[in-house]
Amino acid sequence: MTDPAEATADGTAAWRVTVDRGACLGSGICAALAPGLFVLDGERSRPLRGATEPDEAVLDAADSCPAAAITVAAGTEVVGPRP
């Protein structure tokens, strides 16, 4: 069963989004591709919230990160970055 805190409006599992701030280069690509989810905080990116509804823009941000610092997970399955 999905934790209500990690569910979308339709009850499906939300995606958890994390940024490895130690690996982040601060390029800002993620904030440009998904400005509602990522923000530059000093010289590094961070997610504005830890969970989001599934969205292609989130995967595009993870795929485009030059440092591969963004991880997107649905439950225990990593869905981004894509191979």
From TrEMBL:
Cofactor dependency: [3Fe-4S] cluster
Keyword Nuclease: no
Record's keyword terms, sorted: 3Fe-4S, Electron transport, Iron, Iron-sulfur, Metal-binding, Transport
InterPro entries for the chain: 3Fe4S_ferredoxin (IPR001080), Fe-S_cluster_ET (IPR051269)
Role summary: Ferredoxins are iron-sulfur proteins that transfer electrons in a wide variety of metabolic reactions.
PANTHER family tied to this protein: FERREDOXIN
Protein name: Ferredoxin
